[in-house]
Amino acid sequence: MADDRTAPFSTGGFFLVQLALMIPFVNLILLLVFAFSGSMNINLQNYSKAVLIWMLIGVGIALIVGVLGAVAAGGISAWIQNLSDQYQVVK
């Protein structure tokens, strides 16, 4: 007979976990507790680790896009400044 750690995690359990993970900042704390607590269900631990990995991937992509956007905005700003310097209106 399977113990509590290896028993299948119920649909209702996943539903409640998803509901709890919708709360900002609480979700990160819950995921860390679920993923690295030795007494949690093994299915919940693996699910939490997978969600944490997806979160890290998302943060990495957001940082890359943010840096590229800032570089692009700086380049566009310099280009517009250069155009305005070339075509000054003389009164």
Give a written overview of the molecule:
The chain is an all-alpha fold and 91 residues long. It has one domain. Helices cover 74% and strands 0% of the residues. It contains 3 helices and no strands. The chain has helices at residues 11-21, 26-36, 42-86. It is rod-shaped, with a radius of gyration of 24 Å. The chain starts with 10 loop residues before the first helix and ends in a 5-residue tail after the last helix.
Number of helices: 3
What is the chains' assembly state?
A: single chain
Strand content: under 5%
Shape: rod-shaped
Care to count the β-strands? 0
Radius of gyration: 24 Å
Q: Give the end-to-end Cα distance, rounded to a whole number of Å.
A: 91 Å
Q: Give the biggest beta sheet.
A: none
As for the number of domains, it is: 1
Proportion of helical residues: over 70%
Structural class: mainly alpha
Helix and strand topology:
Blueprint: H1 11-21, H2 26-36, H3 42-86
Helix pairs in contact: 2-3
Summarize the structure.
The chain has helices spanning 11-21, 26-36, 42-86. The chain is mainly α. The protein is rod-shaped.
